[in-house]
Amino acid sequence: MGQIPNDPNHDRNHDSGAVATLSPSRPGARRRWVPLAVLLVGTSLIVLDFFVVNVALPSIQRDLHASASGVEWVVAGYGLAFAVLLNAAGRISDRIGRRRLFAAGVALFVVASAACGAAPTTAVLIGARVVQGGAAALISPTVLALIGVLYPGPDRPRAISAYGMVMGVAAAAGQLIGGGLVTADIGHLGWRTIFLVNVPVGLLGLALVHRYVPESRAQDPARVDRAGLVLATLSLTALLLPLIQGRELDWPAWSLVSLALFPALVGLAYRQQRSARDRGGSPLLDPSLLADRSLRAGLLGQLVFWCTQASSYLILALYLQQGRGLTALRAGLVFTVLTAAYLAVSVRAPALTLRFGHAVVAAGALTEATGAGLLAVTVAVIGTAGPTLALAPGLILVGVGQGLCITPLTTTVLRHADRLQAGAVSGALSTMQQVGNSIGVAVTGLVFFPALASGYAAAFRYGLAEIAALLVVVAALARTLPERR
Protein backbone atom coordinates (compact mmCIF):
# COMPACT_ATOMS: atom_id res chain seq x y z
CA MET A 1 0.00 0.00 0.00
CA GLY A 2 2.53 2.61 1.13
CA GLN A 3 6.29 2.49 1.41
CA ILE A 4 7.36 -0.92 2.70
CA PRO A 5 9.11 -0.83 6.06
CA ASN A 6 12.72 -1.92 5.91
CA ASP A 7 14.34 -3.34 9.01
CA PRO A 8 16.54 -0.73 10.68
CA ASN A 9 18.61 -3.57 12.14
CA HIS A 10 19.97 -4.03 8.67
CA ASP A 11 20.92 -0.57 7.51
CA ARG A 12 23.93 -0.60 5.22
CA ASN A 13 26.38 1.12 7.53
CA HIS A 14 25.50 -0.97 10.55
CA ASP A 15 26.05 -4.14 8.58
CA SER A 16 29.44 -2.99 7.41
CA GLY A 17 30.58 -2.49 10.97
CA ALA A 18 30.14 1.28 11.26
CA VAL A 19 28.67 2.56 14.52
CA ALA A 20 26.14 5.38 14.43
CA THR A 21 26.82 8.16 16.92
CA LEU A 22 24.08 10.00 18.74
CA SER A 23 24.24 13.56 20.00
CA PRO A 24 22.80 14.78 22.25
CA SER A 25 22.11 11.96 24.70
CA ARG A 26 18.99 9.82 24.46
CA PRO A 27 15.86 11.45 25.93
CA GLY A 28 14.63 10.37 29.35
CA ALA A 29 12.04 7.70 29.90
CA ARG A 30 9.02 9.98 29.73
CA ARG A 31 10.17 11.74 26.59
CA ARG A 32 11.68 8.82 24.72
CA TRP A 33 8.66 8.43 22.43
CA VAL A 34 8.41 12.09 21.46
CA PRO A 35 11.08 11.80 18.69
CA LEU A 36 9.14 8.88 17.20
CA ALA A 37 5.97 10.98 17.04
CA VAL A 38 7.87 13.70 15.17
CA LEU A 39 9.35 11.17 12.73
CA LEU A 40 5.92 9.69 12.10
CA VAL A 41 4.71 13.09 10.92
CA GLY A 42 7.11 12.69 7.98
CA THR A 43 5.91 9.14 7.38
CA SER A 44 2.27 10.22 7.35
CA LEU A 45 3.06 12.89 4.73
CA ILE A 46 4.48 10.30 2.33
CA VAL A 47 1.75 7.69 2.73
CA LEU A 48 -1.18 10.10 2.73
CA ASP A 49 0.14 11.87 -0.36
CA PHE A 50 0.19 8.61 -2.31
CA PHE A 51 -3.39 7.70 -1.42
CA VAL A 52 -5.18 11.06 -1.43
CA VAL A 53 -4.02 11.69 -5.01
CA ASN A 54 -5.91 8.65 -6.32
CA VAL A 55 -9.41 10.02 -5.81
CA ALA A 56 -8.38 13.53 -6.92
CA LEU A 57 -7.02 12.52 -10.33
CA PRO A 58 -10.31 12.87 -12.24
CA SER A 59 -10.85 16.35 -10.75
CA ILE A 60 -7.30 17.31 -11.66
CA GLN A 61 -7.82 16.08 -15.20
CA ARG A 62 -11.02 18.11 -15.63
CA ASP A 63 -9.74 21.29 -14.00
CA LEU A 64 -6.37 21.44 -15.76
CA HIS A 65 -7.64 19.87 -19.00
CA ALA A 66 -4.90 17.27 -18.57
CA SER A 67 -4.32 14.61 -21.20
CA ALA A 68 -4.20 10.92 -20.34
CA SER A 69 -0.40 11.04 -20.31
CA GLY A 70 -0.53 14.04 -17.99
CA VAL A 71 -2.59 12.06 -15.48
CA GLU A 72 -0.11 9.18 -15.71
CA TRP A 73 2.86 11.48 -15.09
CA VAL A 74 1.23 12.88 -11.94
CA VAL A 75 1.58 9.36 -10.48
CA ALA A 76 4.63 8.05 -12.34
CA GLY A 77 6.76 11.18 -11.90
CA TYR A 78 6.47 10.90 -8.12
CA GLY A 79 7.50 7.24 -8.19
CA LEU A 80 10.36 7.86 -10.61
CA ALA A 81 12.05 10.47 -8.41
CA PHE A 82 11.39 8.39 -5.30
CA ALA A 83 12.98 5.30 -6.85
CA VAL A 84 16.07 7.01 -8.24
CA LEU A 85 16.98 8.93 -5.08
CA LEU A 86 16.01 6.41 -2.39
CA ASN A 87 19.31 4.55 -1.93
CA ALA A 88 21.42 7.67 -2.47
CA ALA A 89 19.41 9.52 0.21
CA GLY A 90 20.25 6.90 2.81
CA ARG A 91 23.97 7.34 2.15
CA ILE A 92 23.75 11.13 2.17
CA SER A 93 21.99 11.02 5.55
CA ASP A 94 24.74 8.80 6.98
CA ARG A 95 27.29 11.38 5.89
CA ILE A 96 25.67 14.76 6.67
CA GLY A 97 23.33 13.70 9.47
CA ARG A 98 20.02 11.87 9.45
CA ARG A 99 18.06 14.55 11.29
CA ARG A 100 19.42 17.20 8.95
CA LEU A 101 18.37 15.29 5.83
CA PHE A 102 14.97 14.42 7.36
CA ALA A 103 14.34 18.12 8.02
CA ALA A 104 15.51 19.02 4.51
CA GLY A 105 13.18 16.39 3.05
CA VAL A 106 10.18 17.65 5.01
CA ALA A 107 10.94 21.27 4.07
CA LEU A 108 11.24 20.33 0.39
CA PHE A 109 8.01 18.31 0.62
CA VAL A 110 6.20 21.35 2.05
CA VAL A 111 7.46 23.61 -0.74
CA ALA A 112 6.59 21.04 -3.43
CA SER A 113 3.12 20.50 -1.92
CA ALA A 114 2.45 24.23 -2.01
CA ALA A 115 3.59 24.29 -5.65
CA CYS A 116 1.25 21.37 -6.45
CA GLY A 117 -1.64 23.18 -4.79
CA ALA A 118 -0.97 26.36 -6.76
CA ALA A 119 -0.12 24.67 -10.09
CA PRO A 120 -1.73 26.57 -12.99
CA THR A 121 -0.95 23.89 -15.58
CA THR A 122 -0.44 20.17 -15.83
CA ALA A 123 3.26 20.65 -16.59
CA VAL A 124 3.82 22.64 -13.39
CA LEU A 125 1.90 20.04 -11.37
CA ILE A 126 3.99 17.19 -12.81
CA GLY A 127 7.21 19.07 -12.07
CA ALA A 128 6.11 19.69 -8.49
CA ARG A 129 5.13 16.03 -8.10
CA VAL A 130 8.62 14.97 -9.22
CA VAL A 131 10.07 17.22 -6.52
CA GLN A 132 7.62 15.71 -4.02
CA GLY A 133 8.86 12.23 -4.93
CA GLY A 134 12.46 13.34 -4.43
CA ALA A 135 11.56 14.82 -1.04
CA ALA A 136 9.82 11.58 -0.05
CA ALA A 137 13.02 9.71 -0.93
CA LEU A 138 14.92 11.95 1.50
CA ILE A 139 12.42 11.33 4.30
CA SER A 140 11.78 7.60 4.08
CA PRO A 141 15.23 6.04 4.76
CA THR A 142 16.09 8.65 7.41
CA VAL A 143 12.97 7.82 9.42
CA LEU A 144 13.87 4.14 9.47
CA ALA A 145 17.53 4.78 10.25
CA LEU A 146 16.68 7.15 13.12
CA ILE A 147 14.25 4.62 14.56
CA GLY A 148 17.05 2.05 14.49
CA VAL A 149 19.40 4.40 16.36
CA LEU A 150 16.96 5.94 18.85
CA TYR A 151 15.16 2.77 19.87
CA PRO A 152 17.48 -0.15 20.61
CA GLY A 153 16.56 -3.35 22.41
CA PRO A 154 12.93 -3.98 23.38
CA ASP A 155 11.88 -0.45 22.37
CA ARG A 156 12.61 -1.16 18.70
CA PRO A 157 9.72 -3.60 18.01
CA ARG A 158 7.34 -1.11 19.66
CA ALA A 159 8.66 1.73 17.53
CA ILE A 160 8.40 -0.28 14.33
CA SER A 161 4.88 -1.37 15.29
CA ALA A 162 3.90 2.28 15.68
CA TYR A 163 5.52 3.01 12.32
CA GLY A 164 3.53 0.24 10.66
CA MET A 165 0.31 1.31 12.39
CA VAL A 166 0.66 4.89 11.14
CA MET A 167 1.27 3.61 7.61
CA GLY A 168 -1.78 1.37 7.80
CA VAL A 169 -4.09 4.05 9.20
CA ALA A 170 -2.83 6.59 6.65
CA ALA A 171 -3.41 4.10 3.85
CA ALA A 172 -6.92 3.28 5.06
CA ALA A 173 -7.89 6.90 5.65
CA GLY A 174 -6.08 8.41 2.66
CA GLN A 175 -8.75 7.78 0.03
CA LEU A 176 -11.49 8.97 2.36
CA ILE A 177 -9.58 12.09 3.39
CA GLY A 178 -8.80 12.88 -0.23
CA GLY A 179 -12.40 12.37 -1.29
CA GLY A 180 -13.67 14.47 1.61
CA LEU A 181 -11.30 17.35 0.85
CA VAL A 182 -12.13 17.40 -2.86
CA THR A 183 -15.88 17.19 -2.25
CA ALA A 184 -15.84 19.80 0.53
CA ASP A 185 -14.26 22.26 -1.92
CA ILE A 186 -12.84 24.41 0.88
CA GLY A 187 -12.37 27.96 -0.33
CA HIS A 188 -13.37 26.75 -3.80
CA LEU A 189 -9.93 25.14 -4.05
CA GLY A 190 -11.24 21.67 -4.93
CA TRP A 191 -8.45 19.12 -5.48
CA ARG A 192 -5.77 21.64 -4.54
CA THR A 193 -6.53 21.15 -0.83
CA ILE A 194 -5.15 17.60 -0.92
CA PHE A 195 -1.70 19.09 -1.49
CA LEU A 196 -2.09 22.27 0.56
CA VAL A 197 -3.03 20.28 3.67
CA ASN A 198 0.55 18.95 3.69
CA VAL A 199 1.88 22.46 4.36
CA PRO A 200 0.71 22.93 7.98
CA VAL A 201 1.45 19.28 8.82
CA GLY A 202 4.97 19.57 7.42
CA LEU A 203 5.59 22.90 9.16
CA LEU A 204 4.55 21.31 12.45
CA GLY A 205 7.10 18.55 11.89
CA LEU A 206 9.82 21.08 11.09
CA ALA A 207 9.03 23.07 14.22
CA LEU A 208 9.51 20.00 16.38
CA VAL A 209 12.32 18.04 14.73
CA HIS A 210 15.27 20.16 15.88
CA ARG A 211 13.92 20.31 19.42
CA TYR A 212 13.10 16.67 19.97
CA VAL A 213 15.06 14.52 17.48
CA PRO A 214 18.80 14.17 18.18
CA GLU A 215 21.28 14.14 15.32
CA SER A 216 23.03 10.93 14.26
CA ARG A 217 25.37 9.89 11.49
CA ALA A 218 27.53 6.92 10.56
CA GLN A 219 31.22 6.87 11.47
CA ASP A 220 32.25 5.46 8.09
CA PRO A 221 29.51 6.36 5.59
CA ALA A 222 29.48 4.92 2.09
CA ARG A 223 30.00 7.29 -0.82
CA VAL A 224 27.12 8.20 -3.09
CA ASP A 225 27.39 6.40 -6.44
CA ARG A 226 26.87 9.44 -8.67
CA ALA A 227 27.51 7.61 -11.93
CA GLY A 228 25.01 4.93 -10.94
CA LEU A 229 22.48 7.60 -10.02
CA VAL A 230 22.80 9.26 -13.45
CA LEU A 231 22.55 5.95 -15.32
CA ALA A 232 19.53 4.83 -13.28
CA THR A 233 17.75 8.11 -14.06
CA LEU A 234 18.55 7.88 -17.78
CA SER A 235 17.46 4.23 -17.96
CA LEU A 236 14.09 4.77 -16.31
CA THR A 237 13.41 7.95 -18.27
CA ALA A 238 14.27 6.20 -21.54
CA LEU A 239 11.58 3.63 -20.73
CA LEU A 240 8.84 5.74 -19.13
CA LEU A 241 8.92 8.74 -21.45
CA PRO A 242 8.04 6.83 -24.65
CA LEU A 243 5.60 4.48 -22.87
CA ILE A 244 3.59 7.40 -21.49
CA GLN A 245 3.98 9.99 -24.26
CA GLY A 246 4.51 7.78 -27.32
CA ARG A 247 0.93 6.53 -27.55
CA GLU A 248 -0.59 10.02 -27.48
CA LEU A 249 1.85 11.26 -30.13
CA ASP A 250 1.30 8.22 -32.39
CA TRP A 251 4.73 6.77 -31.64
CA PRO A 252 7.12 9.32 -33.20
CA ALA A 253 10.64 8.24 -34.13
CA TRP A 254 12.20 9.58 -30.92
CA SER A 255 9.95 7.34 -28.81
CA LEU A 256 11.06 4.23 -30.68
CA VAL A 257 14.71 5.27 -30.43
CA SER A 258 14.28 5.84 -26.70
CA LEU A 259 12.78 2.37 -26.20
CA ALA A 260 15.62 0.86 -28.21
CA LEU A 261 18.17 2.65 -26.02
CA PHE A 262 16.63 1.33 -22.80
CA PRO A 263 18.26 -2.16 -22.88
CA ALA A 264 21.63 -0.63 -23.77
CA LEU A 265 21.40 1.82 -20.86
CA VAL A 266 20.43 -0.97 -18.46
CA GLY A 267 23.40 -3.02 -19.65
CA LEU A 268 25.71 -0.03 -19.22
CA ALA A 269 24.33 0.60 -15.73
CA TYR A 270 24.89 -3.05 -14.78
CA ARG A 271 28.50 -2.94 -15.94
CA GLN A 272 29.08 0.32 -14.08
CA GLN A 273 27.60 -1.15 -10.88
CA ARG A 274 29.77 -4.26 -11.19
CA SER A 275 32.86 -2.10 -11.79
CA ALA A 276 32.05 0.02 -8.74
CA ARG A 277 31.76 -3.11 -6.61
CA ASP A 278 35.01 -4.57 -7.93
CA ARG A 279 36.82 -1.33 -7.10
CA GLY A 280 35.60 -1.57 -3.52
CA GLY A 281 32.97 1.13 -3.96
CA SER A 282 29.31 1.14 -2.93
CA PRO A 283 27.06 0.62 -5.96
CA LEU A 284 23.40 1.64 -5.74
CA LEU A 285 22.39 -1.96 -6.44
CA ASP A 286 25.00 -4.61 -5.72
CA PRO A 287 25.14 -6.87 -8.82
CA SER A 288 26.03 -9.84 -6.62
CA LEU A 289 22.40 -9.89 -5.43
CA LEU A 290 21.33 -10.93 -8.92
CA ALA A 291 23.65 -13.95 -8.85
CA ASP A 292 21.46 -15.66 -6.25
CA ARG A 293 18.44 -17.33 -7.88
CA SER A 294 16.10 -16.75 -4.95
CA LEU A 295 17.11 -13.13 -4.46
CA ARG A 296 16.82 -12.50 -8.18
CA ALA A 297 13.31 -13.99 -8.20
CA GLY A 298 12.38 -11.99 -5.12
CA LEU A 299 13.50 -8.68 -6.60
CA LEU A 300 11.76 -9.45 -9.90
CA GLY A 301 8.63 -10.52 -8.02
CA GLN A 302 8.69 -7.25 -6.07
CA LEU A 303 9.02 -5.27 -9.30
CA VAL A 304 6.17 -7.10 -11.08
CA PHE A 305 3.89 -7.02 -8.04
CA TRP A 306 4.22 -3.25 -7.64
CA CYS A 307 3.57 -2.82 -11.35
CA THR A 308 0.00 -3.75 -10.43
CA GLN A 309 -0.57 -1.46 -7.46
CA ALA A 310 -0.50 2.25 -8.38
CA SER A 311 -1.91 1.39 -11.80
CA SER A 312 -4.91 -0.42 -10.31
CA TYR A 313 -5.72 2.58 -8.09
CA LEU A 314 -5.46 4.89 -11.08
CA ILE A 315 -7.88 3.02 -13.31
CA LEU A 316 -10.29 2.31 -10.43
CA ALA A 317 -10.47 6.03 -9.62
CA LEU A 318 -11.12 6.92 -13.26
CA TYR A 319 -13.78 4.21 -13.63
CA LEU A 320 -15.61 5.25 -10.46
CA GLN A 321 -15.60 9.00 -11.09
CA GLN A 322 -15.35 9.50 -14.84
CA GLY A 323 -17.24 6.33 -15.75
CA ARG A 324 -19.82 5.98 -12.98
CA GLY A 325 -20.01 9.68 -12.10
CA LEU A 326 -19.34 9.22 -8.36
CA THR A 327 -18.15 12.16 -6.31
CA ALA A 328 -14.62 12.03 -4.94
CA LEU A 329 -16.02 11.31 -1.47
CA ARG A 330 -18.14 8.37 -2.64
CA ALA A 331 -15.19 7.03 -4.62
CA GLY A 332 -13.08 7.30 -1.45
CA LEU A 333 -15.68 5.24 0.40
CA VAL A 334 -15.46 2.55 -2.28
CA PHE A 335 -11.67 2.49 -1.91
CA THR A 336 -11.99 1.93 1.84
CA VAL A 337 -13.61 -1.47 1.19
CA LEU A 338 -10.32 -2.58 -0.37
CA THR A 339 -8.08 -0.99 2.26
CA ALA A 340 -10.13 -2.35 5.16
CA ALA A 341 -9.71 -5.89 3.78
CA TYR A 342 -5.97 -5.26 3.37
CA LEU A 343 -5.55 -4.06 6.95
CA ALA A 344 -7.58 -6.94 8.39
CA VAL A 345 -5.43 -9.56 6.63
CA SER A 346 -2.04 -7.85 6.93
CA VAL A 347 -2.23 -8.15 10.72
CA ARG A 348 -2.11 -11.94 10.39
CA ALA A 349 0.27 -12.05 7.44
CA PRO A 350 3.57 -12.18 9.42
CA ALA A 351 2.46 -15.23 11.42
CA LEU A 352 1.24 -16.95 8.26
CA THR A 353 4.58 -16.25 6.57
CA LEU A 354 6.51 -17.81 9.45
CA ARG A 355 4.40 -20.93 9.13
CA PHE A 356 3.95 -21.32 5.37
CA GLY A 357 6.77 -19.28 3.81
CA HIS A 358 6.56 -18.32 0.14
CA ALA A 359 3.22 -20.14 -0.26
CA VAL A 360 1.61 -17.10 1.39
CA VAL A 361 2.95 -14.81 -1.36
CA ALA A 362 1.72 -17.15 -4.10
CA ALA A 363 -1.70 -17.43 -2.46
CA GLY A 364 -1.90 -13.67 -2.07
CA ALA A 365 -1.01 -12.97 -5.70
CA LEU A 366 -3.56 -15.51 -6.95
CA THR A 367 -6.21 -14.12 -4.57
CA GLU A 368 -5.63 -10.61 -5.85
CA ALA A 369 -5.69 -11.86 -9.44
CA THR A 370 -9.00 -13.59 -8.70
CA GLY A 371 -10.34 -10.35 -7.22
CA ALA A 372 -9.30 -8.42 -10.34
CA GLY A 373 -10.97 -11.07 -12.50
CA LEU A 374 -14.15 -10.93 -10.42
CA LEU A 375 -14.20 -7.14 -10.74
CA ALA A 376 -13.83 -7.47 -14.51
CA VAL A 377 -16.74 -9.92 -14.70
CA THR A 378 -18.87 -7.71 -12.44
CA VAL A 379 -18.18 -4.63 -14.54
CA ALA A 380 -19.05 -6.58 -17.69
CA VAL A 381 -22.49 -7.17 -16.12
CA ILE A 382 -23.21 -3.83 -14.42
CA GLY A 383 -21.30 -1.49 -16.76
CA THR A 384 -21.26 2.06 -15.43
CA ALA A 385 -24.87 2.18 -14.24
CA GLY A 386 -25.40 -0.89 -12.04
CA PRO A 387 -25.15 -0.92 -8.22
CA THR A 388 -21.75 0.14 -6.91
CA LEU A 389 -22.13 -2.34 -4.03
CA ALA A 390 -21.70 -5.16 -6.57
CA LEU A 391 -18.00 -4.23 -6.74
CA ALA A 392 -17.45 -5.07 -3.06
CA PRO A 393 -16.65 -8.83 -3.37
CA GLY A 394 -13.96 -8.21 -5.96
CA LEU A 395 -12.50 -5.29 -3.98
CA ILE A 396 -12.38 -7.40 -0.82
CA LEU A 397 -10.46 -10.16 -2.62
CA VAL A 398 -8.02 -7.59 -4.02
CA GLY A 399 -7.43 -6.20 -0.52
CA VAL A 400 -6.98 -9.67 0.95
CA GLY A 401 -4.46 -10.51 -1.76
CA GLN A 402 -2.50 -7.33 -1.07
CA GLY A 403 -2.44 -8.14 2.64
CA LEU A 404 -0.98 -11.56 1.87
CA CYS A 405 1.66 -10.17 -0.50
CA ILE A 406 3.12 -6.87 0.57
CA THR A 407 4.82 -7.70 3.89
CA PRO A 408 5.25 -11.47 3.26
CA LEU A 409 7.07 -10.84 -0.03
CA THR A 410 9.52 -8.50 1.69
CA THR A 411 10.12 -10.68 4.74
CA THR A 412 10.48 -13.87 2.68
CA VAL A 413 13.20 -12.32 0.52
CA LEU A 414 14.98 -10.71 3.49
CA ARG A 415 14.96 -14.02 5.37
CA HIS A 416 17.12 -15.50 2.63
CA ALA A 417 19.66 -12.67 2.81
CA ASP A 418 22.58 -13.01 5.21
CA ARG A 419 23.52 -10.30 7.67
CA LEU A 420 25.92 -8.54 5.31
CA GLN A 421 23.41 -8.57 2.45
CA ALA A 422 20.32 -7.53 4.34
CA GLY A 423 20.82 -3.77 4.07
CA ALA A 424 21.44 -3.96 0.32
CA VAL A 425 18.48 -6.29 -0.24
CA SER A 426 16.17 -4.09 1.83
CA GLY A 427 17.15 -1.01 -0.17
CA ALA A 428 16.76 -2.89 -3.45
CA LEU A 429 13.26 -4.05 -2.47
CA SER A 430 12.20 -0.46 -1.70
CA THR A 431 13.63 0.71 -5.01
CA MET A 432 11.81 -2.03 -6.91
CA GLN A 433 8.57 -0.92 -5.27
CA GLN A 434 8.83 2.62 -6.59
CA VAL A 435 10.16 1.57 -10.00
CA GLY A 436 7.29 -0.90 -10.29
CA ASN A 437 4.70 1.76 -9.44
CA SER A 438 6.03 4.03 -12.21
CA ILE A 439 6.38 1.33 -14.88
CA GLY A 440 3.01 -0.18 -13.97
CA VAL A 441 1.19 3.11 -14.52
CA ALA A 442 2.87 3.47 -17.92
CA VAL A 443 2.14 -0.11 -19.06
CA THR A 444 -1.46 -0.22 -17.82
CA GLY A 445 -2.02 3.15 -19.47
CA LEU A 446 -1.13 1.56 -22.80
CA VAL A 447 -4.04 -0.85 -22.28
CA PHE A 448 -6.58 1.36 -20.52
CA PHE A 449 -6.56 4.67 -22.37
CA PRO A 450 -6.82 3.37 -25.96
CA ALA A 451 -9.78 1.22 -24.82
CA LEU A 452 -11.69 4.31 -23.67
CA ALA A 453 -13.07 4.51 -27.20
CA SER A 454 -15.33 1.61 -26.09
CA GLY A 455 -16.24 3.27 -22.78
CA TYR A 456 -14.91 3.31 -19.22
CA ALA A 457 -16.36 -0.09 -18.35
CA ALA A 458 -14.55 -1.79 -21.24
CA ALA A 459 -11.29 0.08 -20.54
CA PHE A 460 -11.46 -0.88 -16.86
CA ARG A 461 -12.00 -4.54 -17.76
CA TYR A 462 -9.00 -4.58 -20.11
CA GLY A 463 -6.82 -2.89 -17.50
CA LEU A 464 -7.90 -5.41 -14.87
CA ALA A 465 -7.10 -8.30 -17.22
CA GLU A 466 -3.54 -6.99 -17.73
CA ILE A 467 -3.09 -6.54 -13.97
CA ALA A 468 -4.43 -10.04 -13.23
CA ALA A 469 -1.96 -11.54 -15.75
CA LEU A 470 0.95 -9.81 -13.98
CA LEU A 471 -0.23 -11.14 -10.62
CA VAL A 472 -0.19 -14.68 -11.99
CA VAL A 473 3.46 -14.04 -12.94
CA VAL A 474 4.12 -12.96 -9.33
CA ALA A 475 2.57 -16.21 -8.08
CA ALA A 476 4.84 -18.21 -10.41
CA LEU A 477 7.92 -16.28 -9.23
CA ALA A 478 6.92 -16.90 -5.61
CA ARG A 479 7.51 -20.63 -6.12
CA THR A 480 11.24 -19.92 -6.56
CA LEU A 481 11.52 -17.86 -3.37
CA PRO A 482 13.35 -19.43 -0.40
CA GLU A 483 11.48 -21.92 1.75
CA ARG A 484 10.64 -20.99 5.32
CA ARG A 485 13.49 -21.47 7.79
Present the secondary structure layout:
Blueprint: H1 12-15, E1 20-23, H2 34-64, H3 68-96, H4 98-118, H5 122-150, H6 155-184, H7 193-196, H8 198-212, E2 215-218, H9 226-245, H10 253-278, H11 293-306, H12 309-323, H13 328-346, H14 349-356, H15 359-382, H16 392-416, H17 419-448, H18 456-478
Antiparallel strand pairs: 1-2
Helix pairs in contact: 2-3, 2-5, 2-6, 2-8, 2-12, 3-4, 3-5, 3-9, 3-17, 4-5, 4-8, 6-13, 9-10, 9-17, 11-16, 11-17, 11-18, 12-17, 12-18, 13-16, 14-16, 15-16, 15-18, 16-17, 17-18
Subcellular location: Cell membrane
Transmembrane segments: 33-53, 73-89, 101-128, 134-151, 163-183, 189-209, 229-245, 251-270, 303-321, 327-347, 359-383, 389-414, 435-453, 459-478
Protein name: MFS transporter
CA-based shape: globular
CATH-assigned fold name of the largest domain: Growth Hormone, Chain: A
The whole-number mean of residue pLDDT values reads 87
Can you tell me the CATH superfamily of the largest domain?
MFS general substrate transporter like domains
> What number of structural domains do the residues give?
3
For the record, the CATH architecture of the largest domain stands as Up-down Bundle
Q: Let me know the number of strands.
A: 2
Summing up helix and strand content along with how strands pair, one would put the structural category as: mainly alpha
What this model shows, in words?
This protein is mostly helical and 485 residues long. The protein folds into three domains: 30-214, MFS general substrate transporter like domains (Growth Hormone, Chain: A), CATH 1.20.1250.20; 226-283; 286-485, Up-down Bundle (Growth Hormone, Chain: A). 76% of the residues lie in helices and 2% in strands. The protein has 18 helices and two strands. It has helices at residues 12-15, 34-64, 68-96, 98-118, 122-150, 155-184, 193-196, 198-212, 226-245, 253-278, 293-306, 309-323, 328-346, 349-356, 359-382, 392-416, 419-448, 456-478, and strands at 20-23, 215-218. The protein has a two-stranded antiparallel sheet. Helix 3 runs antiparallel to helix 4, helix 3 runs antiparallel to helix 17 (419-448) and helix 13 (328-346) crosses helix 16. The model is unreliable at 4-27 (pLDDT under 50). Residues 35-485 form the Major facilitator superfamily (MFS) profile domain. It is found in: Cell membrane. Pfam families: MFS_1.
